[in-house]
Amino acid sequence: MSNLKVxxxxxxxxxxxxxxxxxxRIRGLQIVEANDGVGxxxxxxxxKFDLILTDINMPIMDGLKLVxxxxxxxxxxxxxxxxxxxxxxxxxxxxALALGANEYITKPIQTAKxxxxxxxxxxxxx
Amino acid sequence: MSDRDENMGATQRAEEFLQxxxxxxxxxQDLLKxxxxxRFQILKLEQTASDVSxxxxxDQLKNRIGVLESEKQEILDRIKAIEQENIDYDNRYxxxxxxxxxxxxxYISSYQLHSTxxxxxxxxxxxxxxxxxxxxEQFSIxxxxxxxxxxxxxVVEGTDPKLVTSVKVGEGAIGETVQTAAHRxxxxxxxxxxxxxxxxxxxxxxxxxxxxxxxxxxxxxQKVSFSNxxxxxxxxxxxxAATAIFTAxxxxxxxxxxxxxxxxxxxxxxxxx
Lengths: 126, 273
Fold this sequence. Notes:
The complex is a heterodimer of chains A (about 130) and B (about 270). With about 130 residues, chain A is an alpha/beta fold. Chain A is built from five helices and five strands. Helices cover about 40% and strands about 20% of the residues of chain A. In chain A, helix 3 runs parallel beside helix 4. In chain B, strand 5 (about 200-205) and strand 6 (about 210-220) form a beta hairpin. Chain B is rod-shaped. Chains A and B meet through helix 1 of A and helix 2 and helix 3 of B.
């Protein structure tokens, strides 16, 4: 497994670092980071990604808007999208899934959960 | 009917009787022959059975069956042991994953807390750790005003700041924590008035001195209790957040980042020998 690229869109440096830390345990994965939805869109237009992991609550452009724009882009119509939500934010979760997100992860985040979801969606092992 | 006709009838019946008798005799002969044949067959089979039961091949086969039965039992026992090993490995894997998760949380929290000298950044990082890693919805950070011996709220998150008031050292659960310097955790539903008796109080300690506390009033929905990871994070926050806040306070007082100069190196040289 190699050359699979994941975009992590998260405004919190702590959370971003934790997510990247977890994803680095998947061998050969390339990880690109963005601070918010706008930054994420720029990365998406510049490079091709195999999976997008985005927080929902972010300034400038939130995760829901980003998911909506991603799904309207023919290039990313079927690319797996995972959203990160807070516990109890059922409405956000439902909206994200309705907009086309494949999966959600709730905070507080478990690194094992991130790894499990990303491996499953990318269909990779180790 | 004449005498001649009567004699002919008797002769005919006698012949019929003889015919039946003859067929009966033949049938009996056949039965006797079949009986003889079957008795011979039985004797032959008995002889064969006797030969088989005493044959060394049968003993060998019986032994082989015994060995195979024993091997089968060993294999079954081994399969059971392997299944148990698999369960043990699964459990161990889960434990390692949990430890890994804990270490990742601690490493990143510590890394982030010491990545800046700006007090606002440090407060934001504490907020992020509590919200995203522990799952706290409402909390406050209080710092100790040593001139008034009072804990004063610096940050109130997730609730009305007016609900969080200053606390005298030694008064109530929060004030006592300054004296004991030990964190206190309650079951989330055990607290009464959470603002005077929070579900968690974490003292911020630098060296031996408590410089403030973090009070947790409410957890996120569905988070029903504190986990081991939470406790470790509280321990980390108690020490590292305190040091980070203290360093940021020094930075504010200094006005800028300290510059290493000759006198510093001279002093370090003396200190380190």
